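pasting for the record
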Amino acid sequence: MDSKASVFFASLRGKRVAVCGLGSNNTPVVRQLLELGALVEARDRCSREQLGDTADDLERAGAVLCLGDGYLDGLENADLILRTPGMKPYLPAFEAARRRSITVTSEMELFFELCPAPIYAVTGSDGKTTTTTVIAGLLDAGGRRVFLGGNIGRPLLPLVEQMKADDAAVVELSSFQLTRMTCSPHVSVVTNVAPNHLDWHTDMAEYIDAKRNIVAHQTSADRAVLNADNAVTAGFVQDTRAQVFPFSRKGSLPCGAWVQYGVIYAAAPGETPVAVMPTADIRLPGQHNVENYLAAFAAVWGEVAPPLLAAFARSFGGVPHRCELARELHGVRWYNDSIGTSPSRTIAGLEAFDKPVILIAGGYDKHLDYAPLGAAAKGRVKHAVLLGATADKIAAALPRSVPVTRVADMAGAVASAAALAQEGDIVFMSPASASFDMYKNFEERGEDFKRLVGELE
């Protein structure tokens, strides 16, 4: 019997499919659709010159390119429209297509509909990628075949026909992907919710509503893992029919995962709590990583044996660009935390250190409040090296006790930090801002930082 995915893919042969936005997740989807026999229009605001080899490769593969300012013109001729997550789903061109009964969806929404395996999905303002990666590692350790993807930078739709019912799909979801989402995973995880992406969302309420969609369509057979220490996520318990497994770093719970006297405990509802491991044994530094593990343990509790959970936490070294130790030189430790694209992320990183910190921060402005970062910097940051569009906003939020050096670029930031650092110091590159004023993405920013640090003598 043909799978749901194979039946759907067969129906696309000869159909006009418009793929809007040619980012890292959609480009492989364009190639997949062409191989299925669809007539694909690859649409993007960027010019051919900006897309470079991507444009040439897709055109050679058979896609029709629609690029530049009018890239959304003519959508009314499509049979199916796939938008990239960064494009708002209610753009006038998409609404006009819906009025003509044309389906407007996304790679991730299609994947949710077609995936035969249980889906474990993670969202939140901070900790998504680490928690998603840990869940995948834990399930793998427990003997499952795991497919990891989503906002982590890997599309899963091209792999869906390889998946079986006893596999596991582990997915990171951004608020962009969750906006207007009408399906939810079997296991949902919300790490926390704090102000973020307010340059894209209309307001904080819309951002929260997007995050809420991860639990809103669950059933009583599903599981919702919610941060009991965060007021917004704790409130999501009212919005789901799933069985709730809360987690807390601050107090014991009747079920879920929590910390008590420095030990992680976990339990399903009605079970006797089990001591999993001391928090001090977790290899990744910082209380924010304790929370990430609490969320991951709650997500897989009952499927992976406690000794395997503890063994993984003791050995896993982390994900690049997330409090990543780039180098130790002359007694100074240099950390790459390029994923720190919001104040809350940077604050969590700062709290992981017990030594003086030279903070490198600043970048693209997402219209966030930097006052909490200023409060957290007091007593922790000995000097701030600032760059990018948010440099002035961050400088204004910092206490007067923190000296500030402004630089033009990352090379200047690394050079200034090297001149300021003394043995025993930490240099922490955690911008509390997005990267788009100087880099394509946070990964490129982190790699540039690591390259510059590696060249220091």
